[in-house]
Amino acid sequence: MNHLKLIRRERNQLERQLKTAPNIRVYRRTLAVLEIADGRRVADVARLLRVSHEGVYGWLTAYTRTRDPASLVDGERSGRPSFWTDEAQGVLSDAMEHCPDALGYTAVNWTTALLCEHIGKRIGAKPSEATVRRQLARLDYAWKRPRHILQDARSPRVRRKLSLLRRKVWDLPTGCVKLFEDETDLLLYPPLRAGWFRRGQSAEVPIKGENAKRTVFGTLNIETGHRIFVSRAGACAIDFHALLRQIRQEYGDRKVALLLDRASRHTAATSERLARGLDIKLLWLHRGASTSTRWTGCGTGVRRRSARTGNMPRLIPKRSSSSST
After folding, report:
1. Quick one: average pLDDT of 3-29?
2. All residues at 6 or more sequence positions from 127 whose CB lies less than 8 Å from its CB, including other chains
């Protein structure tokens, strides 16, 4: 079938469909019929459109059977049967009600890849990650990062903390090194990783008991951003003494004022005696501010800004001439 004759009405219909083809497949089929009607050989048209001869013959047969351009358009197709079944849905819903470690996995949060593996083990066929994400969205789960939850872990307001620090520092002599001091425990908590959690509900990783830990003592120079860190196995007065000696070694003969809370390791008689011997002035924060200088509050924010700009912001502003009189 290398020749095809078209009357004017049929050619106009094909030309109209060529201009309004809904997709490239219909366009190629319509173009092939028109090209053959113009005298081109089937082999040439197949080579031009990069298809097989059999494909072109199939298009011609479909068209000549009805002489209707609609015969070149794809018909309704059922498509591939859905892989997702009620069994897979049940496995996914049940998995999201439990932590992965409760089901024998070495993880604390569900990831898409881990869910695919789990469903594959249960029903014998592993779904794609796109399918699992789609089903999780329908179940109203969102991908977000969790946080550790402990009771009474809220710190005081930042404004109150900075106001207290300013009042303590304003009366220090000119040239005195002003340091914030605090310590933190590095605990072996389960790692926080983003995972699938119910939308609208807090993403939490339960923790309990005490793990092995290291205590990091640190100071922050509020004018230059210089930091000193001392890692110790404990958090007793003798460990605080190591920080005091490191401060004096770092700043030589300069006057040093250390702002810190009234933790027992700081108020111990041996700590105060050593501080006087090293000429380090201890400025005590009131008892309500015992948690106000946590690195997670002041220190973290300052370090982030310093990393972005390369300059350390001044936390203690200079007193104006009107305020000093």
Report:
1. 89
2. 83, 84, 88, 116, 119, 120
